[in-house]
Design brief:
The chain has 349 residues and is an alpha/beta fold. The protein folds into 3 domains: 156 residues, ATPase, nucleotide binding domain (Nucleotidyltransferase, domain 5), CATH 3.30.420.40; 58 residues, 2-Layer Sandwich (Dna Ligase, domain 1), CATH 3.30.1490; 131 residues, ATPase, nucleotide binding domain (Nucleotidyltransferase, domain 5), CATH 3.30.420. The chain has 10 helices and 15 strands. The strands form 4 sheets. A 5-stranded mixed sheet has the order 3-2-1-6-10. A 5-stranded mixed sheet has the order 13-12-11-14-15, with helices on both faces. The two termini are 24 Å apart. The model has no long low-confidence stretch (mean pLDDT 89).
Amino acid sequence: MFSRAKTTVGLDIGSSAIKVVELESKGGATRLVHFGIADLVPEAIVEGEVMDRQLVVDTIQNLLEKTGVRRRRVAVGISGRGVIVKKITMDRLDPKDAREAIHWEAEQYVPYDINDVSLDFEILDVDVGPKQMQVLLVAAKKDLVNTQSDLIREAGLQPALIDVNSFAVQNAAELNYDFVQEETVVLLNVGAELTNVNIVRGGIPLYTQDLMLGGNSFIESIQKRYQVNREEAVAACRAPSGGSVVDIDPVVEEFGGELGVGIERSLATLKATEEAGTIDRILLSGGGARIGGLPQLLAERQKVPVDVVDPLRRITYSPETFEEEEDPTTAGAQLTVSVGLALRKAREK
C-alpha cells in the first residue's frame, strides 16, 4: 500500500529531434510525469552518426533540465543498418542452454563478424515442429551500441537498457490499443531519416526492417519542387489541409507511394514464408505522421484503416503538462518511441 511509485525514462535520440518521456507506474496505472521535445539543427546527426557531438550532448542536458527529469537511468533505442532482427527456427533446447547454441546459430543470419555484434533473443514458440522451436533473434553492431552508450554517459546519464526502436513502438501501441489475436498490423514509424516497419500479429513481430526513407527526404522534395527554404517546406507539411500556399499533395502522393512499396515488399517476403499475405490495419507514428494527407493516402493505397498513434491514449497526465501552444494529440505521434522505451521496466542494479 505504501510502496513508492517508480518512474522510468525513455530517451529517443532522432536525427531531427530529441524526445524524452518520464512515466510513473503504480497500482497498474501509468502516468506521464514529464516530457519534452528539442529540435536539432540539420546535419547534427546524419544516417545515425553524430556529427556534432557536443551540440547533441548539450541538447540532451538542456532538455532534461527544462523538463524537470531528475532520473539519471534512461532507456534508449537504436535502429538502422547496424540492427538485424530475424525470426529463426532451430533445434528445441532448454532456455538455460539456448544462449550458447543461438550464438552459433546466429552466424548464418547475421551479415557481420559474430564477434562484432551484441546478441539477444526471445523464444517465441517451443513447439513449431518435430523437436524445433521458434526464436526471435536480435543483433546489433557493438560499435553502434557503444556509441549510443558513450553519448548517454557524456550527457551525465546511465544507459539502463538499449532497445530496438521498432519494439519500442510496439510497446507503446500494445498499451494503448486493443489487438485481435489473428489481426496483422503494420506499425509504421516515420522518422527523419528512417522508417521503422514492424509487422505484428498476436504480439509477435512477423517481419521487421528499416526503410532508408523519412521526413527529411519528403522535405527536400518540397524544397526542390517549389524552390523554398527548409523552414517553409516544414511549415507546408504541417499546415492543415488547404492551409499552405504550397501544394504538397503531389509530394505526399510520391512519398506515400514509396512507403507503400516498402510495405508491399515486406508482405511479399512474409507471403513466401506463408506467415501473412495481407494486413488488417496500419498504425502510423513518428514525426512523419504529421505530414498532411499521408494517413489518407496510405489507407487508399493499402485498402486498410490507417490511424495515427496516440501513445498517451491510456496514460494519464495533467493538462498543465502541456503548454498552451502544445496539443498532446499532435505531439503524441512524435513521442511514440520514447513512450515505448519508458514502458520497459529496467532492472535496477
